[in-house]
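We now fix the convention by which a protein and its fold are recorded. These numbers are not coordinates but entries in a learned vocabulary of local backbone shapes. A record is reproduced here so that you can trace the correspondence yourselves:
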Amino acid sequence: MHVEWHVEDAVVASVAAAAARAVPGVARLEPGMAGLVRGWGRSRWQQVKGLAPAPADGVGVRRAGHDVEVWVGIATRAGAQAAAVARAVQREVRARLALDTGVEPGRVSVTVLDVVR
């Protein structure tokens, strides 16, 4: 018997967002300009469908066949080394996606967009 499964991008983004927010040194997720547009479109679509929006602002997901790419925009806390926090976010997002969804992204990109003082 062959079983095929698919995890929706909104679920991947929501799990990635929760993982990123859990990393010490992350003050908040930052959508950036493109993320604001994507987030608005996603929330409108979910409203039309009568779904509760998943908390995923600041996270984007792109698929090309079976390859999945995830990008995360973050604001770090002052005093936390931004590069170390970004690497920790990459590791945590990759691990949580594999554990919670079975999705193993080919690439996890993290951009530090702000430092919160």
Q: What stands out?
A: The mean pLDDT is 87. Residues 24 and 49 are 35 Å apart (CA to CA).
